[in-house]
């Protein structure tokens, strides 16, 4: 008995150690010694650094993400200092926690081997360069998503008010990390209400109330904190109103096509999506009669139909997958990191497919031959692609070890140029969402807008632009950097008339003209830094 327990613990320890080693291995190609900070990571890191200086999100620096990611970045800056290694370490530690949690949740339902395959697929998908960057909100939302799956594994049919409260709390925390990461939480609520053993409508209302209360607790706590600091309206303006404007166009046929290509055709999601959709579809077809009886009984407020189906996180994942897909496609922009949120449900699909396949092969090898070949081909292509793009070379590992010792990180040409031309106390202006320039150089913006993107939205954009212009006139930055060909489509303020703010509203065009006049009157061109134009304040940089 003791020998068996020792082997069990040794196996679990080796599996956990292997997962942690894989997490570290996949992070090596992203280390700051060779990888310049991404745009989003720079925004979050800047926010974290400013929080430690006593600044209030949204009121003193403006961004439109929920506050959870800013708090995590503040911890990273506090622990590792204001340099990109802090964000890299935060991402490493976070996934080092997610991986064993995911494996334990999946192993509870599917067994160790399928769970290990599902967890490895999760890590390879999440860290794939087509959708990943260090320090993304979707990555941090993985942990509460898997904890919701863990609650589902305990038994959806018996979820009492306390379980519902905890599920709602995790859903609220997911929202505070990333708004579109609530698919699993919504699926949990839907599954409980539709497939519950609750004998009365009163019990279901208590379940619903418990879930909603859980969602509201972290949101109310955040709202109270910002209300006490006088920034509640700024919070609502950024997180709610701006994001409604961000998705107001909605998905078009073209964007839906592009999004579905990411999900069903392109690496890394396509193989996992096809396997998962096939597995979930087979599951629902196989249990359709029981599902129908259960729904009929519950919709009539009668007792549940019984059976193992409602206890299954496969049902939870099958309900969550279309919700996650819809959330990823909602804005129509199809940025790669938007699709990281699908990874937890896809890992369930992979683990379930492999468990089901093993059961079929034990019963009838001939019947299981075709699905075995198909799944093997899909997973082989997935692993080969991921290995080629994610596993570091020997020279990369050596460079990582050297950078780890020295603590150095790679700077872009424009960041180096800003450091050469300015002093630490100087104010600079980056006409771009590349806020990592502020973070890496340690310089500040003349206004609370560390990105000009919110000036070009239909809700509040003109007011924000007016506030920005007032701040720039009051505190002229000593350096202005801008891209003539913006990587995010921003209009270039010094462009020739035929290309100047072509898609702006009349009011925004007028404000852009005022900004152009200010630059032409007070600044002189100091040259190029990479693909950036560098402008300097005339009274400081003119001979």
Polypeptide structure, described:
The structure is a single chain. The protein has 543 residues and is mainly α. Helices cover 64% and strands 4% of the residues. The chain has 23 helices and 4 strands. Strands 1-2-4-3 form a 4-stranded mixed beta sheet. Strand 3 (523-529) and strand 4 (532-537) form a beta hairpin. Helix 13 packs across helix 16 (343-363). The longest helix has 28 residues, at 201-228. The termini are far apart.
Summed up, what is this model?
With 543 residues, the chain is mainly alpha-helical. The chain has helices at residues 2-27, 39-52, 68-80, 85-110, 112-126, 137-140, 142-153, 161-177, 183-194, 201-228, 232-246, 253-264, 269-286, 288-299, 313-329, 343-363, 369-390, 394-406, 413-421, 436-441, 461-474, 506-522, 538-541; strands spanning 428-431, 479-482, 523-529, 532-537.
What labels describe this entry?
single chain, 543 residues, mainly alpha, 4 strands, globular
Nearest-integer average pLDDT: 91
Task: Characterize the biggest β-sheet.
Answer: 4 strands, mixed
Strand order of the largest sheet: 1-2-4-3
Return the structural class.
mainly alpha
DSSP helical segment count? 23
- Measure the end-to-end span: 85 Å
Fraction of helical residues:
55-70%
Silhouette = globular
Runs in which pLDDT lies below 50 for 5 or more consecutive residues are 303-308
| Gyration radius over CA | 26 Å
Oligomer: single chain
**Percent strand:** under 5%
> What is the N-to-C succession of helices and strands?
HHHHHHHHHHHHHHHHHHHEHHEHEEH
Number of strands: 4
């Amino acid at each position: 008995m003791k020998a068996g327990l020792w082997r069990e613990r040794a196996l679990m320890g080796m599996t956990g150690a292997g997962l942690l080693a894989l997490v570290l291995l996949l992070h090596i190609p992203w280390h700051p010694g060779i990888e310049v900070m991404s745009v989003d990571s720079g925004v979050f890191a800047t926010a974290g650094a400013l929080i430690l200086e006593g600044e209030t999100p949204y009121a003193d620096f403006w961004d439109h993400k929920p506050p959870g990611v800013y708090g995590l970045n503040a911890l990273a800056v506090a622990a590792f200092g204001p340099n990109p290694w802090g964000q890299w370490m935060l991402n490493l530690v976070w996934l080092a926690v997610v991986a064993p949690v995911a494996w334990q949740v999946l192993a509870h339902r599917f067994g160790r081997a399928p769970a290990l395959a599902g967890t490895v697929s999760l890590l390879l998908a999440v860290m794939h360069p087509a959708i990943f960057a260090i320090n993304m909100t979707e990555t941090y939302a993985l942990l509460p998503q898997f904890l919701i799956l863990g609650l589902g594994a305990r038994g959806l049919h018996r979820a009492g008010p306390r379980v519902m409260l905890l599920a709602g709390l995790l859903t609220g925390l997911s929202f505070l990390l990333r708004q579109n990461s609530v698919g699993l939480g919504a699926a949990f609520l839907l599954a409980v209400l539709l497939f519950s053993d609750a004998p009365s409508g009163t019990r279901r209302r208590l379940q619903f109330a418990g879930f909603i209360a859980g969602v509201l607790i972290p949101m109310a706590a955040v709202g109270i904190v910002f209300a006490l600091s006088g920034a509640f309206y700024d919070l609502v303006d950024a997180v709610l109103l701006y994001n409604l404007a961000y998705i107001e166009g909605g998905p078009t046929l073209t964007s839906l096509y592009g999004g579905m290509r990411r999900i069903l055709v392109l690496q890394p999601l396509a193989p996992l999506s096809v396997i998962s959709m096939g597995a979930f579809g087979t599951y629902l077809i196989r249990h359709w009669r029981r599902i129908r009886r259960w729904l009929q009984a519950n919709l009539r407020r009668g007792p549940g139909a019984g059976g193992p189906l409602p206890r299954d996180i496969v049902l939870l994942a099958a309900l969550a997958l279309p919700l996650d897909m819809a959330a990823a496609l909602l804005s129509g922009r199809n940025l790669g990191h938007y699709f990281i949120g699908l990874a937890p449900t896809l890992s369930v699909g992979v683990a379930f497919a492999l468990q089901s396949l093993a059961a079929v092969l034990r019963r009838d090898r001939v019947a299981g031959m075709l699905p075995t070949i198909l799944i093997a081909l899909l997973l082989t292509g997935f692993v080969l692609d991921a290995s080629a793009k994610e596993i570091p070379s020997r020279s990369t590992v050596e460079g990582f070890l050297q950078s780890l010792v020295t603590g150095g990180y790679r700077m872009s040409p424009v960041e180096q140029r800003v450091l050469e031309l300015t002093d630490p106390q100087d104010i600079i202006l980056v006409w771009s969402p590349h806020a990592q320039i502020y973070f890496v150089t340690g310089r500040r913006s003349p206004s609370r807008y560390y990105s000009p993107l919110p000036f070009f939205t239909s809700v509040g954009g003109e007011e924000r632009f007016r506030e920005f212009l007032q701040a720039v006139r009051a505190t002229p930055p000593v350096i202005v950097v801008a891209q003539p060909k913006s990587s995010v489509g921003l209009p270039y303020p010094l462009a020739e008339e035929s290309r100047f703010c072509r898609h702006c509203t009349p009011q925004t065009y007028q404000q852009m003209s005022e900004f152009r006049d200010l630059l032409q009157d007070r600044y002189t061109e100091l040259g190029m830094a990479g693909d950036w134009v560098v402008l300097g304040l005339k009274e400081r940089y003119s001979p």
